[in-house]
């Protein structure tokens, strides 16, 4: 099994955490999608990481890959068996991924020369970020895990997002504004799978 990933991608990190939690062996094929000589397009026509090659097929998009791995290795389940409960977990994953996309859009916009940056675009994305973290903060108040008192894909997606924010947008002090979320993320982030994949 080959994972095509960059070491700083929060979406690719979700998959690295899942592979470690499920004790699945994999070869890490590092590829940075923004590099001129990237080979990511050989695996994903969208030119995005992560992609997972296994058994002659290539799976793309972290949510799809997460579903695939859940079927491939049901041990150490990251989704509840009941279908509706599983959708609840996937809903939180979609929220975390959506917040991440908004944050990355801001990060990329800020890399452009300041005179051509679009302030109203950044503001729109910032709204998604603030409201999204507010929602996650409510979901984690006084809780160890987001869904059903159980570690799940929802927690993996949320913590990969939150740690990416601390890594790439340190000026956005989300830990101060969302203290329940910060305490939750610190606890979940102490798991070995997060320590082994933390971007530095
Ligand atoms: N929805 C996708 C998002 C993946 C994504 O945006 N990955 C970024 C790296 S963090 C990427 O490869 N960007 C390259 C590009 O957009 O061209 C997923 O969950 O896998």
From TrEMBL:
Q: Which domain of life is it from?
A: Bacteria
Q: Which Pfam family, any one, appears in the UniProt record? A: GST_N_2
Q: Which SUPFAM superfamilies match?
A: GST C-terminal domain-like (SSF47616), Thioredoxin-like (SSF52833)
Question: Where is the GST N-terminal domain positioned along the sequence?
Answer: 1-77
Which stretches make up the GST C-terminal domain? 82-200
CDD domains per the UniProt record, alphabetical: GST_C_6 (cd03205)
Please give the InterPro entries that the UniProt record associates with this protein: Glutathione-S-Trfase_C-like, Glutathione-S-Trfase_C_sf, Glutathione_S-Trfase, Glutathione_S-Trfase_N, GST_Omega/HSP26, Thioredoxin-like_sf
The cross-references to NCBIfam families, in alphabetical order and at most eight, read: PRK10357.1
- The protein's name is Glutathione S-transferase N-terminal domain-containing protein
Native organism: Litoribacillus peritrichatus
